[in-house]
Amino acid sequence: MINADLNRRDFLQKATTATVAVATGVVLYQTGGTANAATRADATKRWGLLIDTNGCDAGCDACVGACKDENGWEGSGNPTTDPSWIRKVNLKDKRTGATKSLPVMCQHCENPPCVDVCPTTASFKRPDGIVLVDRHACIGCRYCIMACPYGARSFVHEPTKNQKPHMPRGMGTVESCTLCTHRIDEGRLPACVEACSTKGNAVMTFGDLNDKNSDISTQLAKHVTQRLRDDLGLEPGVLYGGL
Question: What sign does the CA torsion over 226, 228, 230, 234 have?
Fold first, then answer.
């Protein structure tokens, strides 16, 4: 019998987790998941990413390649079904013809709409501001995909292969950029930032937005920057310069 006091969200989460465990026999542990969030994430920090579009070359995809290699996802060329952890977007001013190229990924919002619409709390925000998906609780409803104004989430349509131990993926679940929480929790930079500094034009700055002495805070104090769709009031942790 189901406890009459058990609310719908709790029931869905518990039932879904049990179903996944029984049906597949596979536990999709994800670094930075619900269990690890409380122990590894530092609530005094607010991780952020600053991207200088003035130096971002349209022909450079070092950040995209690094993300693929680090997290074990690959596209087949189909924009409808391909993963979209990070992608390069080219903008053009119709009046002047001026162009800009910039990487777009999960914006790790302070007020994430993906979390608000999730019926099982699979979408959640760590205490340090990083937004993640708990694949144990994800039922593949894709409400979060529809709610994200940045097109930053994707659904795993095909069976996964060659998975990374630190970043398992599962068919039938939603996924997106994690800012490489497994690296952050070890004191390292996200893979895209590291690759941009060694193989690209070093236009990415990662750091703690709450620390006024961090590199990212120092840069933000010197330059005018903006957030994508700032009018929505989501307060993304990813900021862009030169737009």
Answer: negative
- Across 19-23, 90-94, 203-207, least confident range: 19-23
- In the predicted structure, residue 9 carries a pLDDT above the cut 90: no
- Give ∠ CA 132-43-192 in degrees, rounded to 5: 45
Residue 224 has pLDDT above 60, yes or no: yes
First to last CA, the chain: 57
Indicate if the alpha-carbon torsion angle 115, 67, 183, 235 is positive or negative.
negative
What average pLDDT score do residues 151-157 get? 95
Does residue 201 contact residue 57 with C-beta atoms inside 8 Å?
yes
How far apart (Å, rounded) are the C-alpha atoms in residues 202 and 51?
Answer: 9
- Whether the CB-CB separation of 133 and 122 falls below 8 Å is answered with yes
Domains, the chain, in order of start with CATH, read 8-241 (3.30.70.20)
| Beta-strand runs (E) in the chain | 47-52, 86-92, 99-105, 123-125, 131-133, 154-155, 174-175, 204-208, 225-226, 238-241
Tell me which residue has tokens 């961090």: 214
The pLDDT of residue 43 is 95
Give the 3-state secondary structure of residue 21: helix
**Residues facing residue 80 across a β-bridge:** none
51 close to 238: Cβ distance less than 8 angstroms = yes
Nearest-5° angle of CA 233, CA 239, CA 243? 100
Contacts of 180 (CB under 8 A, 6+ apart): 70, 71, 188, 189, 190, 191, 192
Instruction: Tell me 210's DSSP state.
Output: T
Residue 229 is encoded by which pair of tokens? 């769709």
